[in-house]
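Good morning C.,

I know you're traveling, so I'll keep this short. The sequence:
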Amino acid sequence: MNRGFYILLSMLVCLPFFLFADEIGRITGKVLDESSNGPLAGVSVQIVGTNEATSTDFEGDFTLGVAPGTYTLRFSSIGYGVKEISEVRIEGGKAVEMNVSLTPSADELAEVVVTVSARKNTEISLLNMQRNAGVVMDGLSSQSIQRTGASTIATAVRTVPGVSVQEGKYVYVRGLGDRYSKTTLNGMDIPGLDPDKNTVQMDIFPTNILENIVVIKSGSAELPADFTGGVVDIVTKDIPAQKQVGVSASIGYNPDMHFNDNYVGYQGSRTDFLGFDNGDRKLPISPTSDIPNRIGEGRESLEGITRSFNPLMRPDRENSMPDLSLGFDFTNQYKLWGNQLGVIAAVNYKNVTSFYEGFQNGTYLRPLQTTASDELRADRTQIGDLGGRNVLLSGMAGLNYKTGSSKYGLNLLHIQNGESRASIYDHKERIANSIDAVKYNLDYGQRSVSNLLLSGKHSNEDATFLTEWKVSPTLVSADDKDVRTTTFVQEGANWTIRSDAGVPTRIWRDLDELDVVGKVDFTKKMNLFTRDASLKFGALYSYKQRDYAINEYEIRSTIDVNHADLNRDPNAILLPENIWTPETDSGYYMSGQYQEASTFDATQHTGALYVSAEFRPWEKLRTIVGLRAEQYTTFFTGASIVPRASYDNVKTIDKLDLFPSLNLVYNVVENQNLRASYARTTARPSFKELSVIQIYDPLTDTRFVGNLDLEPTYIDNIDLRYEFFGDGAQMLAVGGFYKYFRNPIELQVTSDAAQSNFTPRNAPVAKVYGVEVEARKNFGFISESLTDLSLNVNVTFAES
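The C-alpha cells, ready to paste straight into the viewer:
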C-alpha cells in the first residue's frame, strides 16, 4: 500500500514541471447595468492610448491579452455613461479581474474616471448575486473559501447560514436531512456515491476549481421540485482568468485512531488503496446458480464449491496508518479560432483510517406499561471495536468554449470509492433469547460514479432572447463484496455456533444504475408596466434505471461437528481439513439458493414543464410568479417473500403534480430588501424504499424492508427575510421559515415482533420552522488598514 502512495505522490509532484508560465497578462471581467445588475452585451472596452480593444459578449464578459505594464481602461456603450479605470497594473502570466457597472444616462458623453487599482472582489460579486436574486439564497465565493483555508467543499460550506455537514460529507440545510436537500453540479442533478441519497458527498470536490457555492432556500418554477431544505449548487470555473497549477499533500493524525496496534482490519486485495477490489472478493460461482444440497443431486460438486470461497473470516489486530490526502489541479484559458477556451482539471486522492474502541449499537424497546420505570429496555446490544479504511479517488476535467453569442461546455467526472470495515463485538440478546456471543464482521463496499455534462448557451444579436440546454448521463455502480459475519455463542466454558444466533454468512450485493437528465431553458427579456421584465419557460426529462441483486450464502455443518474444536476462530471453519467431503459426509459446507425476491429492476421517469414571469408592478416591488408541472412515474419488477407475489414492470407511482411558486422582493431603500416567498415542493421515495427488497446490515444486525405502498411527500414552504447590504462585503440578514409536510416518509420498526426490521412508512403530517441570522462586518471603521479583516456570524434555530 505504501508503495502505491509514493508512486501517486511522485506523479503529482512532477506534473507541474511540465507546465510553463505565460508571459502575457490578461484583463478579464464583466460589465453590468448598475440599475438592474444584469449583464451588458456589446460594451466597448478599450485600453487608452493603444489599439487594443474588445467588446463584451452576451453574458457581459470580456478578455484582453496585454503585455506587462500599467494601463487605463475605457468602457462605453450607447445609453450609458462612459467610465474609465486607471492604474490597472498587469504582470506577466497573471490576470486582473474586475466587475464594472455602467450607469444609464441620457448624456452619452458623461464620463467617470476612477483612479484606483481595479480588481474583482468575488465575495462582493456573490453578495451582489444574492441581493439581486429572485429567491432566498446564500453562498460562498471562491474568495471566501480561500480565506477559510478549506481544501474541500465539505469543510467550507459549514459557514453558510442554516447549513450543517453530517458524517463529514453530507449537507443538511435548515436541519433537514438528505431526503429534503438536493445537490447539483453546475445546475444539473448528479448522484453521489450512495445512490439512495439525494445529496452528493461534498468532500470529493476540491475548492480550487470552484467559482462559488450557491445555496437556494426558496423554490421557483425553474428549479426541480424535489427539494425542501435547499438546493446546493456547486459552480465550477468555466473560463479561468489565468493559469493556475496546484499540488497538495497532507497527512492527518488522530492519537485515538492512528498508529494504534489494536486496530481491527483484514487483508483485502492489492488494489484496495486505489478504491476498488481487483477480483479477490469476487463471487466464485454464478449469481443465478443454486449450491447443491448436501444430500441431494449434484452433491459431489459441493466440496469444490465450498473450497472456492475465500476462507478468511476473521478480522486481525494490526497497526493503523495515518490519513493521507493528495491533489493536483490545473486551470487556464487559451485562444482558439479567435475565441476563448477554458480548461480545468483536477485529480484528488484520500485514504482515511478510522478506529472506534467501545463502538456500540443495538435495539432498545420502550418500557413495559406494567412497570414504573421509564428507562428503555435493551433487547440486543453490540459493544466492541470497529476499524475502517475509506479510499476516495476522483478526477474531473472540463472544457468551455465561448464565442460572442454562444458558450459550450463539456465536463467529465469520475469518482471511485472503496471502504473496508472490520469489527469484533460482544453481542448480547436478552428479551427474545438469552444469548452471550462474540461476533466478527468483515465488510467491503465499492462505489463508482461516472458523469458527463454537455451544455450550451446561446443568445440572439441584442441578447434579449437566451437559450440554455444541458444533457447529463451518469453511470453508477455500488457493490458490497463478500460481507462476512460469524457469531460464536457461549455455552458454559465452550463457544459454539447456533442457528438462533445466526450461522456464518457471506453476502454479495450488486447495484448498477443509469441516469440521463436533459433540460432546456428559454429567457425572453421584455418591457412590462414600462419597466424591465422577463419570461422564462423550459422543460426537463429525467430517466433513472436501477438493477439490484443480493446473493446470500450460509456456512452449514453436519450434526456430528463439534464447534468447540474451532476455538472461537472463524478462520478455522473453512480450513481444508474441516471442509465437508462426500466420502466422510462430515464438516462445513456452503449453502444457498438463488432467490428471485433478492433482485429487482426499477425505473423512474420525470417530465417537467415550467413557466415563470418576472416583472415590477411598482418600481420598488419585484415579482416572480411561476408554475411547474411534473409527471412522475415509477415501475418495479421483482418478487416479495411475504406475501408471496411477483411484479413485472408494475407501475407503482403515476402522478402529475403542479408546483406553484411566488417570490416577492421589496426594495425598502437602496441596498435593503424585504423578501417573502411561497413554494410547493415534494420529497419522493428512493428506489430501495419503493420496493419489496430486504437488505441485511451485518454491522448493526438490522434489516431494511422496502414498502411499495409509499406515497410522495408534499411540502408547503413559506419564507420571510430582511436583508441589508453595506459597503464592501458587509451585510446583515434576518429571516424566518415555515414548512408543512403532508405524508412525510419516516423509518419505523416493522412490528413489535421484529424489532430489528425497519421499513419506511408515510406519517400523517410534520412541521418545521425556524429563524436565521447572518452578519458580515469588517473593521474598517476602526482603521482603513483593517478593512480586509472581517467578522462573519451566522446563527440558525430550527424546531421540528
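Safe travels,
E.
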